[in-house]
Amino acid sequence: MTTDTDAAPQVHAFEADVSKLLHMMVHSVYSDRDVFLRELISNAADACEKLRYEGIATPALLGDDAQPRISLILDPEQGRLTIEDNGIGMTAADMGETLGTIARSGTKAFMDRLAADAGKEGSQLIGQFGVGFYSAFMVAREVEVFSRRAGTDEAARWRSDGQGTYMIAPVDLNEAPARGTRVVLHLLDDAKTYADRFTVERIVKAQSGHVPVPITLFEKPDAEGTAIADGAALWLKPRAEISEADYADFYRSVAGQYDAPARTIHYRAEGRYEYSVLTFIPQTKPFDLFDPDRKGHIKLYVRRVFITDEAQILPRYLRFVRGLVDSADMPLNMSREMIQDSPVLATIQKGVTGRILSDLQKVADSDPDAYRQIWENFGPVLKEGLYEDFERRETLLGLARFRTTASQDGWRSLKDYVADIRENQTAIYYATGSDLDRLATSPQLEGFRARGIEVLLLPDQVDNFWTTVGIDHDGKPFKSVTQGAADLSLIPLTQDGEQPEQPATGDVDAFLTFAREALAGAVSDVRASERLTTSAVCLVAPESGMDRQLEKLLASAGQLPQAALPVLEINPAHALIRKLAAADEADGLKADLAHLLLDQARIADGEQPADARAFAERLDRLMRRVVD
């Protein structure tokens, strides 16, 4: 039986994101275009794996061709390269959905980066982001896709030159594979070497030698094939038989990335349940690492049969880890919906998570430089576990590294912090914000520096959350330097921390009372500060209030209807404050100065004056008085 080939071909326009992406790929120069072949081979392998899974429930889909395979067919005379598989295949409708859109989050971010970096690291960007099929247009002037879905008696053809439209039409069954997909690349003049045996074999062995499907190379369309990859499951081999190059090759294939792994974790777990694990920590961070919809990248196999890549094997804070788990005990016929509730999977989740965290600790202890790179890439994600994973919180605190007032250019562990803790210091102090340099110069830190108290500088958004869940370490709670009273009186000043001259108590008290009245409704209190040594004023949160940085974050997200009034702390030893305290009120000048002090504190905190017009008018009155 054949399809109705008289049906009119359907011409479609690519969706806007695809069209823009193709334009950049076709018109940009890349440092290494070889990545396209790895992407197409990975797609073919996925199609074979999907068929193997569906064949468990419906063996008829496999027919008498149960062994998966990928064929690479060269045609140097016609300048063509063909990638063919006997996997699940596609219908015409599948082609429209799969080859005309990018069903992946973060596409715009990728394209913005690609446009900015074109000509420098384009191939790495493509590999990291996994745009897959569309990379074919880097080397092809036209791409044709012939496919027949398993279990159907219809075949279809997809064709495009990558210029904005594509065509889909039915074809005779003899023009398509008996089952699966054939991708034909009509190579550009400067890409004809991709029809050369040496070039293709080199790329496959370097980038795709360990896909779990055998690959056969045909030097000509009518030639005998030669096996160039055996499709053996690398994860089932002993570590001693696998080279670092083999691991790197497999990592690029399974992870869809172009870098090398920073860390490889390969082992076999035995006990109540048996399973093999091969996971990788990347050297570079993905562009969509903080995408809220981003899922993990651990594939689940059962006795070498690919089941799903959507099982939540690792917690979200380990979503940067790539790789797979192969279970020997999970039933092959279990539905994907039931997998997540399986006791086998629960055991795997606990075991793999613990092993990865244990391995990270080993790296941190044995190779601090290597761990520093891992932390700089993925530290903000790992810190999510501090408020999500109570069971492993102490382990994650041990892995955490921080910039501090004692080491802004290096990283400090909590073990380092506690080892240098000051006499009578009862808390681990921290400051949150959005900019490390601004944090390091915050006026709220002055009193801590004068006493040699180290303060953690926390510039990541996640820091605003994990610090609020009642965490402690070594018996010491975490305390914000911008929240509540500082209570530093019991901690002695360092030799460099001079004891400031104290003004007359009565004058200061009177000025504090005056400022409370003048600023009523703008602050909850005005008080003398133990934090300040050189600055005149600063803002802090009330003792029972929310940390000021968290409050700002929630307010900007519309999740905080009304912010609490801050506390204005005044440095009684500051020369300006001493003069204000001793001065008489005249013509409202003292009230203006109280408001200007509040606005000064806001500006130092990275905010704007609450009322810009009133701020300008007060400043104008003050300058006129000085000039007169």
From TrEMBL:
Q: Does the keyword Iron-sulfur apply?
A: no
Q: Does the keyword Chaperone apply?
A: yes
Q: Which UniProt keywords apply?
A: ATP-binding, Chaperone, Cytoplasm, Nucleotide-binding, Stress response
> Please, which domain of life does this record's source organism belong to?
Bacteria
Where does it reside?
A: Cytoplasm
Region of interest: A = 1-336
User: Per its UniProt record, what SMART domains does this chain match?
Assistant: HATPase_c (SM00387)
Spell out the InterPro entries in the cross-references. Answer: HATPase_C_sf, HATPase_dom, Heat_shock_protein_90_CS, HSP90_C, Hsp90_fam, Hsp90_N, Ribosomal_Su5_D2-typ_SF
Which residues belong to any copy of the Histidine kinase/HSP90-like ATPase domain?
A: 32-191
Give the region (C) as residue ranges.
553-628
Identify the stretch(es) annotated as B. 337-552
Which Pfam families does the entry link to?
HATPase_c_3 (PF13589), HSP90 (PF00183)
Indicate the quaternary assembly: Homodimer.
Which family does the record claim for this protein? Answer: Belongs to the heat shock protein 90 family.
Function summary:
Molecular chaperone. Has ATPase activity.
Q: Which HAMAP family match?
A: HSP90
Task: Kindly provide the name given to this protein in its UniProt entry.
Answer: Chaperone protein HtpG
Q: Which organism is it from?
A: Sphingobium cyanobacteriorum
The gene is htpG
